[in-house]
Amino acid sequence: MSAEEAMIQQKGQSNVDSTDTEQKGADRVQFRRMLNHVAHGLFLLSTLVGVVVLGVLLYDIIQTGWKWVDADFLNNFASRFPEKSGVKAPLWGSLWLIGVTAPLTFIFGVGTAIYLEEYAKKNWFSRLIQLNISNLAGVPSIVFGILGLTIFARGWGLGQSVLTGALTMTLLILPIVIVAAREAIDSVPSSLRQASYAMGATRWQTIYKVVLPYSMPGILTGTILALSRAIGETAPLIMVGAVTFVYFTPGNIFDAFTVLPIQIYSWTGLPKEEFQEIAAGGIIILLAILLTMNALAIFLRNKYQQRNG
Amino acid sequence: MLKTVESTGVSRFKKKRTWRTSWEGIIPKLLLLCALVSILTTVGIVLTLVIETASFFQDVPFIEFITGTDWTALFSESQQEFGILPLISGTLLVTMGAAVVAIPLGLFSAIYLSEYAPDRLRRTLKPILEILAGIPTVVYGFFAFTFVTPVLRTFIPEMGVFNALSASVVVGIMIIPMIASLSEDAMSSVPRGIREAAYAMGSTRLEVSLKVVVPAALSGIIASFVLGISRAIGETMIVTIAAGATPKLTLDPTESIQTMTAYMVQAAMGDISYGGTVYKSIYAVGMTLFVFTLIMNLLAQYISRRFKEEY
């Protein structure tokens, strides 16, 4: 009752103020609405900048490099002559690097994640590890290159080998894998764990047979995405001394190697214009590998999800 | 008969248990070793940087290093100067340019995705931004050098082939997805009730976004800016390819400059003798870079923890 009365009173008051203020209020509402529309357009445009840039970038690269991509391009080594140049050495170097990095990252990444999620007590030590991991994720990749150069290449005497590169890359992408694996493990419902314990399973049996299979899609997706970051990295491998002009493919993990991004970088810097077109061709191969890895991640996730469902 | 069954049962049980308990005891230790790898990585990074940098400072006085305005490390030995200020100014020039591009665009994208975008459009836009984030930096560098620079030079003809402007624009584009997705995460964790209260008071979408959601998510948004800037400081390939290799103490973005990261690449690519002053200078520059990014990362963590609004 009293609220109604107050409203009536207010209405009476506003009537006294004549229609002038009402008109002003309507104008103000209109203005605020217009402002909202303008901002909506501005925000949409800003978001589209990223989309447009991606489109232009892909179009520019495909248009420049597509004519160079053929079977010869995949089977030739680098050369002084543009028409004889190819990506055989860096392509195989990149594949070797990923092949060695993948198991190392998986073991150390998932191991750390299991430790932190399942075993570590909530004390200063596990907090230290966590803080350390989140800080490592922010260290520039080139600094990992310095570490690889000092410890693996010189300290352990591994030189400019595939193994040096793979160890460096492992340390670089480890934080990403750990975070992804922890999230995946954390998402396992506790009822599943308890059911396993209730059946008399030990802690490790529960982890190995219940927690890991359940979280595997998330772990694999995270690992593959981290590896696709590794395959595009250039700077740390330049630091450890992966050389540009390699005229052979690695035969084992102690051989010298080069990778696609380094080859692309060195072609980009050459004065002849054809080499920039070849660089674009190399980029097409690199992006094709990345696309394949992402598709693989999605495929694995779907496959495992069906099984779990 | 009953007795034997019982006794064998017990003994089998016991045997299994000892095998299992030892395995159960070893596993956590193995996993702890995995976890220690990340600690050892940090220790390794800090130790290598500190040791070699300390030895660098025996050749070059510390004061000269941080106040010198000439960096001519790769010149012949008699003309070598190791003043890091030109490399720092180059890095900051590119970083500031990148921030000018990425902060508004990243924040606006985040507001659009979190507050305005219809669900279906958001599900298309987010993967596209993720693809943008997954493009290797060497590809961005190529793009800066062969596309952005020629385009910019049609507007500013006097600008050189290598310039800070093109590199900073592309570095900015590279960090947009990072700022957008971290800011959007912060905004979408703002409870719906607060938004709805503001709508009920007659606010427009813009007012809800700018006066309610952004202030509530401010700690996360600022942290995303700081992390983006830290990423720009450590970015290597774009600046190596597009910004040039001439260390210069300047704030003019149309000039060719050199960043700390680009110097490290240039030195590592060249023929430098192991153990010499130039070799050690890579570590000294790396140390400076590491300190810069570490401060930014700690700052981001501090902001997001200290100023977090709890609901």
From TrEMBL, chain A:
Alphabetized GO MF terms: phosphate transmembrane transporter activity
Alphabetized Pfam families for the sequence: BPD_transp_1
Mode of membrane association: Multi-pass membrane protein
Region Disordered, residue ranges: 1-22
Domain ABC transmembrane type-1: 91-296
Gene Ontology BP term (one): phosphate ion transmembrane transport
Transmembrane segments: 38-59, 95-116, 136-156, 162-185, 206-227, 278-300
Subcellular location: Cell membrane
Any one GO cellular component localisation term in the record: plasma membrane
Cited PROSITE patterns: ABC_TM1
Major location (coarse): membrane
Keywords per UniProt: Cell membrane, Membrane, Transmembrane, Transmembrane helix, Transport
PANTHER family the UniProt entry points to: PHOSPHATE TRANSPORT SYSTEM PERMEASE PROTEIN PSTA, PHOSPHATE TRANSPORT SYSTEM PERMEASE PROTEIN PSTA-RELATED
Family: Belongs to the binding-protein-dependent transport system permease family. CysTW subfamily.
Name of the molecule in the record: Phosphate transport system permease protein PstA
Organism of provenance: Melghirimyces algeriensis
From TrEMBL, chain B:
Keywords associated with the record: Cell membrane, Membrane, Phosphate transport, Transmembrane, Transmembrane helix, Transport
GO annotations of cellular component type: plasma membrane
InterPro entries, per the entry: MetI-like, MetI-like_sf, Phosphate_PstC
Subcellular location field: Cell membrane; Membrane
Domain of life, source organism: Bacteria
Pfam families tied to this protein: BPD_transp_1
Membrane-spanning intervals of the chain: 30-51, 84-108, 128-148, 160-182, 208-229, 281-300
Summary of the function given for this chain in its UniProt record: Part of the binding-protein-dependent transport system for phosphate; probably responsible for the translocation of the substrate across the membrane.
Protein name per its UniProtKB record: Phosphate transport system permease protein
